[in-house]
Amino acid sequence: MGERVLVALGGNAMTGPDGSASPGDQRRAVEGAMAHVTALIGRGHQVTVTHGNGPQVGNLLLKNQLAADVVPPVPLDWCGAQTQATIGTLILNALGERAAVVVTRTLVDAADPAFGHPVKPIGRYFDAAQARRFERLGQTWREFPGRGWRRVVASPEPLEILDAPAALALMAAGYTVVVAGGGGVPVVRRPDGTLAGVEAVVDKDAAAAVLARAVRADVLIIATDVPAAVVGFGTADPRPIGRITAAELGRLHAAGHFAGGSMGPKVAAALRFAVSGGRAVITSLEHIGEAPSGRVGTVVEG
Ligand SMILES: NC(=O)OP(=O)(O)O
């Protein structure tokens, strides 16, 4: 019987093999990813899609800065909203007609300590000299050994997916809905109750765990570039993890087995959803059609 499935796709799954974010590369990558989503729909599941935007939002921000003398730069939350529209449109074109994108806001806490500690990597990699140049403009950059330097920005905890009710209404009408792209546009609630955007990028895996509850998903599939989470990744003895309880995976996570900025956030999101009663599967894009069966990937249950 079909289940309600939320698929979370990485922003990197929507760029070319070398991270290239040319329009053609993005379109081809999205079409490839949506072929797998379509396979999942074909198996009778009700599918909702969320996606990352790290490469795309960083590139938009950079373009803003480079054109600052001639066009007023817009804030990071505006760039996030723009990526929801552009990536969302590519997804809709690849899925066909009974699909919709919801511009989605994610509530965060204005006092979240993450605002003082930028950790979320966005945009493309640069060399050290270029990173230094951007650091002199007040930005924070971090080295990713073997890959280069990447800008990092604040990534507050998602508290609530504010537009999930709109997604639920569209799902009830039979639409495949794209929700909370890029983790959602981060907003805070002001003392007078109004909402305001803030300069941050919500981690899409963390937002996916909150969204999965909000849209009452049975399964959260976190698509990545490896078939399963691995203990001993990059060592001579890598051990892929199959079925695992949230308690055991939590112990491995606490012991530091999963790298921050890559598998770590995916494991944290899987745990968050599993302990709230759902089933989370971490697997590669190619396997998402089979993921609800529990026969592929790292399958986490409470
Ligand atoms: N917003 C976000 O987490 O995007 P990525 O998954 O592309 O980093």
Describe this structure in words.
- It is a single chain.
- Helix 7 packs antiparallel against helix 8.
- The chain is of the alpha/beta class.
- It contains eight helices and 17 strands.
- The chain is globular and about 55 Å long.
- The chain folds into two domains: about 250 residues, Carbamate kinase (3-Layer(aba) Sandwich); about 35 residues, no CATH class.
- The two termini are about 20 Å apart.
- The longest helix is centred in the N-terminal third of the chain and has 20 residues.
- An eight-stranded mixed beta sheet has the order 3-9-2-1-12-16-17-15, with helices on both faces. It has a four-stranded mixed beta sheet with strand order 8-4-10-11.
- Bound molecules: phosphoric acid mono(formamide)ester.
- The site of phosphoric acid mono(formamide)ester has 11 residues, from loops.
**In CATH terms, what is the architecture of the largest domain?**
3-Layer(aba) Sandwich
The chain-level structural class is alpha/beta
H/E order of the elements? EHEHHEEEHEEEHEEEHEEEEHHEE
**The CATH superfamily title of the largest domain:** Acetylglutamate kinase-like
Unreliable runs: none
- Identify the overall geometry: globular
| CATH fold type of the largest domain | Carbamate kinase
Report the CATH C-level class of the largest domain: Alpha Beta
> What's the number of extended β-strand segments?
17
Helical coverage, percent range: 25-40%
Quickly count the helices: 8
Q: Taking all residues together, what is the mean pLDDT?
A: 94
**Percent of residues in beta strands:** 15-25%
Give the distance, in angstroms, between the N- and C-terminal Cα atoms: 21 Å
Tell me the number of structural domains.
Answer: 2
Bound compounds, each kind once, are: phosphoric acid mono(formamide)ester
Cα gyration radius (Å): 18 Å
Largest sheet: 8 strands, mixed
Identify the strand order in the major beta sheet.
3-9-2-1-12-16-17-15
Family: Belongs to the carbamate kinase family.
InterPro entries: AceGlu_kinase-like_sf, Asp/Glu/Uridylate_kinase, Carb_kinase
Keywords: Kinase, Transferase
GO molecular function, one term: carbamate kinase activity
